[in-house]
Amino acid sequence: MYALIQGIAMLIYVIVLTLYGKAYGFSRPKSFILGFLAVSIDYVVILLMTWVENGFQGFGAQNAVRVFVFNPLLIYIVAKIMKVDFRKYLDYNAFPGMLWYGLGHFACLTTGCCQSFTYKEGSFMYDIAHALTGTGMLPQQILESVGALLIAGILLAVGIKYKFKTNGYMYLIMLMLYGTQRFFFEFFRDNEKLIVIKDMVSANGQIGISNLAFWAAAMAIEGAILLAVMVIYDKKHKKAEIEIPAQA
Predict the structure, then answer these.
(1) For the stretch 119-132, what's the b/e string if a residue is b when 16 or more beta carbons lie within 10 angstroms of its beta carbon?
(2) In whole angstroms, what is the distance from residue 147 CA to residue 161 CA?
(3) CB neighbour list of residue 33: distance below 8 Å, 6 or more residues apart
C-alpha cells in the first residue's frame, strides 16, 4: 500500500507538471519530459543517499526530504541540458514538488513510520494528542502532509497572483517555508535525536534535534541565502540596465 500511494503521488506530480508547463511557456511534450526528468533524478539521488547511509549495502527511499537540499543544483543541471531558463524551471518545480511530497507522505500512515511520540498520560502534550486521536500520539503523518499541502496551496496562489513570473523566487521561498516547518515537526517525531533537549516528555522517546532536523534547517538556510543573492543580483542588474541608456 505504501508503494501504491507513493506511486499515485508521483504520477499526479508528473501529470500536474505536464499540465502546469503552459503557465511557464513550455509545450506539453517538453513539460512531460521536464517533469519526468525532475522526478527521475530526484528518485535516483534519494536511492543513492540511502545506499550511502546504509553502508553501501542496500537502496531505499526513506526520508526523501533530504533531496530538497540538492534540488537547486539538480534543477540547474537539467535546465542546462534541456536548454531552458534556470529560474523559470526552478519555480516550475515548486508547487508540483510540494504537492507530490504532501500527497506521498500520506503513505506513512500505512506503515507507521514518521509517527509521533507516545506522550505520558497527564502531560500537556498527551491531552492535546488524546483530544485529536484518542491516544497519546499526535496524528504526525497527517499534520505533516497537510502542512506540505498548505505550502503547495500558498505557492500556487502566489504563482497565479504574479502570473507565474516569480523569477526563481518561489522555489526558494518553498525551501524556506518547508524547511522551517519540517524543522519544527521533527521535534515531535519519535526518532533518534542527535541533540537531546528533554527526555521526560514522552514515554518512548526524546525531545531534541534529529538528523533530519539538520537537513531541514539546511534547506531553510539555503533558500534564504539563495533568495538574498538573487534579489541583490536582480536589483544591481536592474539598476545597471537603467543607468546604461541614461549615459548614452
Answers:
(1) beeeeebbeebeee
(2) 21
(3) 82
Distance CA 96, CA 90 (A): 11
Name the residue with cell 506513512: 108
Record the pTM: 0.85
pLDDT tens-place string over residues 69-93: 899 999 999 999 999 999 999 999 9
| Per-residue cell: 13 | 506530480
| Beta-carbon contacts of residue 145 (< 8 Å; ≥ 6 apart) | 102, 103, 105, 106
Q: What share of the chain is helix, strand, coil (3-state, %, to 5)?
A: 75, 5, 20
- The dihedral over CA atoms of 39, 44, 50, 53, expressed in degrees to the nearest 10, equals -130
Helices and strands (H, E) in the chain, number of each type: 10, 2
Angle, vertex CA 60, rays to CA 181 and CA 40, nearest 5: 80
The C-alpha cell at 246 is: 541614461
User: Taking 80 as the threshold, does the pLDDT of residue 56 lie above it?
Assistant: no
**Structural Rg of the chain based on CA atoms:** 20
Q: Which among 138, 76, 77, 71 has a CA at the least distance from the CA of 109?
A: 138
Query: CA 78, CA 40: separation in Å to the nearest integer?
Result: 11
State pLDDT tens for residues 145-183: 999 999 999 999 999 999 998 899 999 999 999 999 999
d(CA 83, CA 105): 32
The residue to which cell 550511502 is assigned: 52
